[in-house]
Amino acid sequence: VVPGEVVLDDGAVDDGPGGEVVAEPPNGDPPRVTDTRGPDVVVRPAARSGKSPHPTPAAATPTAARAAAHRRHRFAMTPRYRPATCAAAHRQGRSLAAMRIDLGVEQHQLDWPELERRARFAEDAGFEGVWVFDHFKALYGSPEGPCFEAWTLLAALAAVTTRVRLGPLVTGVTYRHPSLLAAEVVTADHVSNGRIELGMGAAWFRQEHDELGLRFPGAGERIDRLDEALEVMTRLMTGRDTSFAGRYYRLRDATYRPLPVQRPHPPIWIGGGGERKLLPLAARRADVWHGFGPVAELARKSRLLDRLAVDAGRDPAAIRRSTTLSLSQPWDEVRATAEALFHAGFQTLVASWPSEGWSRLEEFVGKVLPDLQQLA
User: Fold this and answer.
1) Quick check: 4 and 43 in contact, CB under 8 A?
2) Using 50, 70 and 90 to split pLDDT, how confident is the model at 233?
3) Rounded to whole angstroms, how far apart are CA atoms 228 and 232?
4) What is the DSSP string of 289-350?
5) Do 10 and 272 contact (CB within 8 A), yes or no?
6) DSSP for 61-94?
7) Is 135 exposed, middle or buried (0-12, 13-18, 19+ CB in 10 A)?
8) Residues of the chain above pLDDT 90, percent
9) How far apart are CA 371 and CA 159, in angstroms?
10) pTM score, two decimals?
């Protein structure tokens, strides 16, 4: 990981706790959070006020024409999610997909206008998805700084965008009962007209749990809870009358309406890299696996995921592979890393918001993004 880079939650809790890796703030404030994987690191806010010091690009400024386009889109039908699409394409010998480049907008220490601006910019610049993280407090700088809740924020971002996919990397399973989470996901899917991605993980930040009075069980139990939670949510989102008696969750004659826009449900992303429990879970339940680490390690774990998927009776090609892309390296290195990941089977890259700020991101959009989107 590049010092100063912002990386979304990888959720890797099986072989060690996962978490955000964030960058040095401009004023030199010490970090407020100890990452249990290593030294303290913090993230750079755009500015003390939460607003970027750079002028808003013209394309990101709301206009009457943009508002009209937004209204037209809201009543247009978006493609429904088909979990078998990738596998079918693979069997027919077709390319699974071109490289998809998304953007993490990281809500630490940011106000709503800045987050809206980031999401609108991502849409206008040609990114295909926008991602937030799932925490209830800022993990750097002032502990009294803002940090908006993930799923209500996603619904708000859905209302001010028209095209980009939207999701959390990743939702901590310990924060919400899966019945409540299913209702939040479906609501956001309707607000977005079918653009939600359901990122799920086993959580990692013990301090946050302790402060908020949330139980933080061991890694093994958290992954088992994730497995049960996905079963509960899938049942509720597919319209089945559900009675479920699991070890951690119980439902009795439960239903939820409306059903999601995407059928059978929004794509399920599972984040993490633990080989003993988390990757086998991803092999059984994930539509997308989001990993984290060096290219060689990701490629090795992706091959392991292939074998685990076969053992689970699934076509490995049905599980899309995703990881995070640093924008703080020299551009030739960014291109080389993206190409290596693509050839290793990673078809989605989530670009981390660069610690260098808006100018670096705009340079990426102008100089590098078009090249990466041509990978196929």
Assistant:
1) no
2) very high
3) 6
4) EE--S-HHHHHHHHHHHHHHHHHTT--GGGSEEEEEE-SSS-HHHHHHHHHHHHHTTEEEEE
5) yes
6) S--HHHHHHHHHHHTSPPPPP-TTHHHHHHHTT-
7) buried
8) 68
9) 30
10) 0.78
